[in-house]
Design a protein that fits this description.
mainly beta, Thrombin, subunit H, four-stranded antiparallel beta sheet, about 45% strand
């Protein structure tokens, strides 16, 4: 057992063929400035111990990004080790980075006379590199208009020119009429023209939807995007740019499992893809459907309904999360403790954790709890943490042994 550690859940994928890499979970020692990684059997990663602030929270595609600088006054020098501790990418980049689909966006030099969009840190010029540390394109891209390689392509910017950059490094210029271009989402990227009208382009850069409208337009998700033709009223359009619903709602969410939540007359209900109201607006808040159930709330209590609007799990919880995966959802009881239920509403793990948590797709989650070591002079100082499997097994824990109730 690891004594007095804080576990931070981390996991990785290989972007090539989605082949899973070995799972590593970060372990922070609260009594020092060091951290290391363990696997699900508790074996320590050969990459060794590192300073907490000089290493990423998780591996990406078999690599962990660390800061190689030797003194606090030195310039940042971020690079990568593999899980054996070998240096794969030398430390020469100015910010930490992660790999997506085998490509990372890395900061190479400050942009003169520019600061980031949040106005706090200086912005940078970026390159895109592969997992061997080789640039896929020699061009410098602006940090405030270039995105991670979430797909086999991404949107980038250099000066006033926008581009589509492929994973192989090929560039395609976009129209100079585009003032802004968002990242690709569901195969489309939203662009704002100089006249403030909206156009959506496909991955070739071809404009497939042109919206002569200065009002709000959102991102496409599951074939539909929210938009507005009237101030403060919203609806949905399809991927042809045609209205799927009128713009009559005060707020809208997004379509999932063929239904979307909408707010009208200050209450939330659900419509189908044809715009028909299938669950009447009677709730104070809703979330999208996942695994056939949607979280809803009324008068400060949370529960779950099915697609017919029937309350399958009563509205009795102080808070709750959606059934995102694994047929499980976390709920908050009246004592402000988090636990776990199944789709029948049966309690799988009694509420006993102090913060919400979620299981990852590998079936693990980190939870926070308190024991006698968490308090000093009667005051709460720290939370103990543990690593659970979705079968309810305590894999790792800090402080006193965690026994699930």
């Amino acid at each position: 057992m690891i004594h007095k550690v804080i576990l931070l859940l981390s996991f990785i994928f290989s972007g090539l063929g989605l082949k899973a890499q070995k799972l590593w979970y970060r372990v922070d020692d609260p009594e020092s400035n060091s951290c290391f990684f363990i696997d699900t059997l508790g074996q320590k990663c050969p990459a060794g111990e590192h300073q907490k602030m000089a290493i990423n929270l998780e591996f990406s595609e078999g690599l962990i990004c660390i800061n190689f600088k030797k003194k606090p006054t030195d310039t940042n020098a971020w690079g990568c080790l593999n899980d054996k501790g070998d240096t794969i990418i030398k430390g020469k980049y100015l910010e930490p980075f992660y790999f997506y689909n085998g490509i990372a966006r890395v900061a190479v030099e400050p942009m003169p006379l520019k600061i980031s969009l949040d106005g706090i840190e200086p912005d940078y010029f970026y390159h895109y590199i592969n997992t061997q540390g080789l640039p896929i394109n020699d061009k410098l891209f602006d940090g405030d208009g270039s995105y991670d390689m979430d797909h086999s392509w991404t949107v980038t910017k250099s000066g006033f020119q926008w581009y589509i950059l492929s994973k192989s490094g090929k560039l395609k210029e976009l129209s100079v009429d585009y003032e802004t271009v968002d990242a690709f989402d569901n195969g489309l990227a939203k662009c704002k023209r100089m006249n403030h009208y909206t156009v959506y382009i496909d991955t070739t850069g071809w404009p497939v939807i042109d919206i002569p409208n200065e009002n709000f337009t959102g991102e496409f998700y599951n074939g539909f995007a929210p938009y507005s033709t009237v101030d403060n009223k919203y609806g949905f359009m399809n991927k042809k740019g045609q209205p799927a619903t009128p713009c009559v709602y005060e707020e809208v969410s997004y379509f999932n499992e063929e239904l979307a939540s909408v707010k009208i007359y200050n209450k939330w209900g659900f419509i189908d893809t044809k715009g028909k109201m299938v669950i009447k607006p009677e709730y104070d808040a809703t979330e999208a459907f996942y695994e056939g159930l949607a979280r809803v709330s009324l008068d400060g209590k949370f529960g779950y309904i099915n697609k017919s609007g029937k309350r399958i799990i009563p509205l009795k919880f102080a808070n709750a999360y959606s059934f995102f995966s694994n047929g499980l959802a976390i709920i908050l009881d009246e004592n402000q403790m988090w636990g776990l239920i199944n789709k029948k509403g049966e309690v799988i793990i009694k509420p006993q954790f102090v913060n919400p948590f979620q299981f990852d797709k590998f079936g693990f989650a980190t939870v926070e709890y308190t024991d006698k070591h968490s308090y000093k002079k009667g005051k709460l100082e720290t939370y103990e943490k543990a690593l659970l499997s979705k079968q309810g097994k305590v894999v790792w824990y800090s402080g006193e042994k965690l026994i699930l109730k």
